[in-house]
């Protein structure tokens, strides 16, 4: 019976989080007892339990209640024979976090997420500057501050940094940080327990409100409604609001227009995808952290540069790769070399294999043939343009996963049959015309570099 319920809850949780979070933290959880509104899980280490509680506790509770199980509290137990190991498995640089009391509205702030530990580069300098300004706690100059950007680019880090900074410099301020999911869960709980008045007054008494991942509110109408009122009340009393999302306010679907326009009326800044310099900077700073855990580990020159070059998704993936690399190297007791990195991270590296874009191909081809990009794409039919155009089409077809119509669109809205014809023509010529064959070889190599 209990396992069924937990299976259902797991299924629902799975739909709402990344596959890796689910596999790392939720899948391994074993529900042992469900009794007196308390769900007790068996976890491998104390740290594991704390982490799950802190990061997924609310969601787990919420989904238990959704599937009709009145669960009010989660407990995490380390089996007796494993508890001795727990200390070893907790990363040495993970600070002990305070356990959360259940009547507290917000989420805990990670003390490691500070401005000091945030590496600034071109892609995030504006977001960093705006966050720092807000963290000064002075007169509110833009309200709300809306941070958006892809996953793993540092939105949550910056919000925690603001909270850490304010708690140190302005301890009298009531700073509340919570995720949109937590906001919703608290709201629903308050409704159910008839504690809406408490909930409202708690929210309205804060000086700084941060809501992380507001895209989660999309389609949740009553949560949005409540949020809208809180939002207005706080703005009116000139309290600072900081929001984050994985996309711009205008791009969040199923968000009420009035909320969307409210979100846009302060300062909206985005965190851009990382560039090489930022990635290298992040790696260098995270290596310092790893050194605390593995003080004797040797890392060969060039490895960080290699990783910064090859792992381009986001900072979280980069960080994960580094942690794994250090753990792996210490297990096999070897120096971290390029070879070891390639071995240990082959899956991550594969996922990051450089994808060539249509634009890159067009640029390279027009450079190669010394013609203008506009002529390559444009309507002129002269051979000096038409041949390079066909070469570019051929490369797009063979080096990207774009469809013929899609490629046609990117070449001045040409028809897919034109692209097909061009691709065929180059295929033929590559056998009979050694100049074309050489050109293709050269271009392909330079695009793959
Ligand atoms: P997001 O909320 O945008 O998905 P996070 O703030 O959770 O991303 O960042 C993911 C991980 O990457 C965190 O561990 C964070 O500390 C780290 N990180 C992201 N950007 C930076 C940065 N510029 N400097 C240092 N660490 C960063
Ligand atoms: Mg986040």
* Overall residue-averaged pLDDT value: 87
- Count of separate DSSP helical elements: 21
Number of strands: 8
Percentage of residues in helical conformation: 55-70%
Order of strands, widest sheet:
5-6-7-4-8
Element pattern in H and E: HHEEHEHHEHEHHEHEHEHHHHHHHHHHH
Per the principal axes of the C-alpha atoms, what is the gross shape? globular
Rg estimate, integer Å: 27 Å
Q: Are there runs of 5+ residues with pLDDT below 50, and where?
A: 83-99
In percent terms, what proportion of residues is strand? 5-15%
* Cofactors and ligands: adenosine-5'-diphosphate, magnesium ion
Question: Would you write up a description of this structure?
Answer:
This protein is an alpha/beta fold and 449 residues long. The chain has a 5-stranded parallel β-sheet with strand order 5-6-7-4-8, with helices on both faces. A 3-stranded mixed β-sheet has the order 1-2-3. Strand 1 and strand 2 form a beta hairpin. The chain has helices spanning 2-15, 19-26, 46-66, 80-89, 125-135, 155-169, 180-192, 196-204, 221-236, 257-263, 276-293, 303-310, 315-332, 338-344, 346-351, 358-368, 373-377, 383-399, 404-410, 416-432, 434-448; strands spanning 30-35, 38-42, 73-77, 145-149, 175-179, 208-212, 240-245, 267-271. Residues 83-99 have low confidence and may be disordered. Bound molecules: adenosine-5'-diphosphate and magnesium ion. Magnesium ion is lined by residues 155-156, 212-213.
């Amino acid at each position: 019976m209990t396992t069924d319920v937990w299976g259902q809850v797991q299924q629902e949780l799975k739909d709402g989080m990344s596959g890796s979070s689910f596999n790392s933290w939720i899948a391994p959880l074993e529900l042992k007892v469900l009794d007196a509104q308390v769900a007790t899980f068996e976890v491998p280490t104390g740290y594991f339990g704390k982490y799950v509680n802190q990061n997924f506790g609310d969601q787990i509770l919420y989904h238990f209640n959704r599937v009709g199980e009145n669960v009010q509290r989660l407990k995490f137990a380390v089996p007796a024979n494993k508890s001795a190991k727990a200390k070893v498995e907790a990363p040495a640089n993970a600070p002990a976090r305070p356990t959360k009391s259940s009547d507290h509205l917000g989420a805990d702030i990670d003390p490691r997420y500070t401005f000091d530990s945030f590496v600034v580069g071109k892609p995030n300098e504006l977001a960093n500057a705006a966050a720092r300004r807000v963290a000064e706690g002075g007169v509110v100059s833009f309200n709300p501050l809306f941070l958006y950007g892809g996953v793993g680019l540092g939105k949550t880090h910056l919000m925690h940094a603001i909270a850490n900074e304010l708690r140190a410099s302005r301890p009298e301020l009531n700073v509340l940080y919570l995720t949109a999911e937590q906001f919703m869960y608290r709201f629903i709980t308050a409704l159910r327990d008839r504690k809406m008045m408490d909930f409202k007054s708690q929210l309205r008494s804060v000086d700084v409100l941060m809501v992380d991942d507001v895209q989660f509110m999309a389609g949740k109408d009553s949560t949005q409604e409540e949020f809208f009122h809180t939002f207005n009340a706080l703005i009116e009393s000139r309290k600072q609001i900081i929001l984050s999302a994985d996309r711009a306010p205008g791009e969040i679907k199923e968000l009420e227009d009035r909320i969307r326009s409210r979100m846009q009326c302060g300062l909206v800044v985005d965190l851009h995808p990382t560039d090489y310099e930022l990635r290298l900077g992040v790696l260098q700073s995270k290596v310092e952290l790893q050194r605390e855990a593995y003080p004797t580990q040797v890392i060969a020159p060039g490895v960080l540069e290699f990783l910064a070059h090859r792992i381009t998704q986001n900072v979280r993936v980069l960080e994960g790769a580094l942690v794994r690399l250090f753990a792996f190297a210490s297990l096999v007791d070897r120096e971290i070399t390029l070879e070891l990195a390639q071995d240990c991270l082959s899956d991550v590296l594969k996922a990051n294999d450089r994808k060539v874009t249509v634009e890159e191909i067009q640029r390279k081809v027009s450079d190669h043939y010394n013609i203008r990009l506009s002529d390559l794409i444009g309507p002129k039919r002269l051979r000096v343009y038409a041949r390079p155009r066909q070469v570019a089409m051929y490369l797009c077809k063979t080096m990207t996963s774009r469809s013929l119509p899609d490629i046609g669109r990117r070449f001045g809205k040409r028809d897919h049959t034109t692209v097909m014809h061009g691709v065929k023509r180059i295929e033929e010529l590559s056998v009979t015309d050694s100049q074309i064959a050489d050109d293709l070889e050269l271009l392909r190599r330079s695009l793959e570099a």
